[in-house]
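Thread title: Can someone regenerate the structure for this chain?

I was given the following input by a collaborator and told the matching structure tokens would be attached. They weren't. Posting the sequence so someone can regenerate them.
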Amino acid sequence: MVLLPLLCFSSYKLWRDLDRDRQDAEAHVQRLAMEVAAGAQRELARARRLLAFMEELPEVRALDSERCNAMLRGQLTLDPVLANVGVLGLDKRIVCSAVKLPPGQRVLLDSSPWWNEALARHEAVIPAPQFSPLLHKPVLGLVQVLRDEARHPKAWLVVSLDLLALSRHWAEFEPAPGGDLTLLDEHGLVVARSQQAERWIGQDLSGHLAAFRRKRPTGAGEFTGPDGVRRIYSAVSVSQTGWTALAGLPVDHVFAPSRDRLRLTLYWAAGALGMAMLLAVWLARYLSAPLHQLQRSASAVADGRRDSHASESGPSEFRSVAIEFNRMLDSLRIAERRAERLQGLYEALSRTNRALIRGNNKLDLCREVCAACVDAGHALLASVWLRTDPDRLQMFASAGPVLDMYGGLDNMVDLQDLEVAQTPTGEAVRTGQAVVANDYLTDPRTSRWHAMARLHSVRGVAVVPLKRHGHVEAVLVLHVAEENWFDPPLMRLLAELADDLALGFDILERDAARANAEAQLVHSRERFQRLFQAAPLPAAVLAQPEGHLLDANQAFVEALGMKREQLLGRTLPELGMGISQADNQRLQQRLREQHGRLRQFEAPFRLRDGRVHDVQINAEQIEFDGQPALLTLSADMTLRKRTELALRESLARFELAASTGHVWAWRPDSGLKAPTALLDLLGFSDEEMGSQPGLWLPEVHAQDRGALLEALRRHLSDRTPLELEFRMRGRDGSEHWLLASGQAQWDANGQVRQMAGIVFDVSEHRRVQARLASREQELGDAATGAIRGDVP
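Best answer:
Regenerated them for you:
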């Protein structure tokens, strides 16, 4: 009578252990599958953000291989799952690559329809996993078309994920021996697998997956794997991709302990079967009530009512069963709640990414993030605080009754306040690290707001800093209604959300800077057109190398005597005018030698009526309406050259006159030209005295030398008339009085261009004046003597 109930109870306990092991295994593989799905979604999101980041880089948009390679090669160190990042031309040749590959090498990729799909779409396309001959490993590529400003395809942006590294990355989940973690794409192809990854990546398991779903519509249960091993599997869909994450544990591993106990029990039961039969009736009656109650609880749980706990007031064994059942139910509810939190935060992260795409300003972006955290992320209160200066935070956006939570205070927080500085917010700003208070009502750092927290049912808070340019610019604050809400996986997602928000700030500022640059470009173009049309000299813009006119100012049109409409779109030779072909070749050669800049190029310019003018051309290579062009500025040199010719002829006549008379001349280029009459008077030759005025100065009388230099200085600086008498010594030592006068000519800058004048010998005149003076002195002395009576 005693053994029979014990046998029944042992059998039931073995059944319960098997069922518990199965349920635990199903819950465990479901968690593993969710972790695999979350990891896959995270890697794809990172790859898409990297594609968006590359699309905005100037060196990538310019297809500058050298600068692009230098930038991309630092990306591989940021993510171990990243295999390569690169840019391909439309001909699928390498432009730049994070992995050192020869530029220009053609990438041997298949011609699958996804290339055309990528051309037709404005977002990344994920082809099937394949083996890369360049990287020597299986990879999964994300391909996006880089388009120019006209939205025309310009190049391919490619991010490749290392599928072997992704498979090895799952080692952190530590599945049981023989366990299977597999990621399938929307076509059922293996993307990654924890077991024999190199063999299975790229294999088609679509039929296997369909058979599993037909047999296990709940997405969990026992099934034979593709390698023939019987496992307990769980299938979880990867959000927004159509992919499936599979996790499986071998049945032998799951039920090994229970089967050992079953074997031992069977041995024991064989010897105690007789007594167990006697106890069966009594035990059945005694245990029927708790069994029925436990069955009702199990049925309620199967129907989805997770709050239906089993009664723990029965006999000890049944009480233990009820306790274990309730513990399992609590674990399942916690796991489901954790999965719900993660899923909600993934949805908030997805909404943030969509807000990044359509956001126009920081305020709208922050409001959308706060609303997403409250609506999808299960947060009670959410707010973003901007750091207006090192010691102040200002509330920028919020969702939920945040102001009520802070007791009606204004939206400014002073970090110099010691009580505020010790809060999780102050600690996050000070350290730059995320701070959590999972028990808000007992945490001394939040004591100031305990009363308001009780009123609003706040039980936990997390503060995540938004760092840009090496310092904390803002913080994201989330309040929740449950204790111990924030665990490490959730905080990693919050950190990723904060990084996305900081990236959004960068994108908005970059877009604003780009819009400002475009406005300045339009302003510069308008200013160029005003200056271009107002230029007094003929100016034109010619396409290169064709040479047809793209634009011309009014001075150019008037100089050619044609209408502007007749000139645009045609070349000067077509109009029967311009410089000769030889001069044009010489002009192009000068442009190449002077790196696209031409100055003071002179050549004959033939007009339509046959007249030829001498012109001086200045040119600069520019970009005009997106095409290479040449900006030219021309000056008609015909009148100037005629004037210079007349001046040279006049100067020649003047120098001829100077060589035959008393005229002297001085020019900076030729020096002093002394008159031959003066050379003959002093007895010097032209070769002896030379053309430098300094060679004549020693022959000037010492008493007159200073006056001569002072007269020259005053004439050149003050422009006073130049005329004076001075003495010079001849070769034979004789002294001659000279009368010199002259006049200088100055250019527009005040520099002396030349001087000219005449010089005469007045020595005889001086001697006559001396004799007359002596005679007057004698007559005066005689007259004085006569008056005094001294005349004999």
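DSSP finds 23 helices and 26 strands in the chain.
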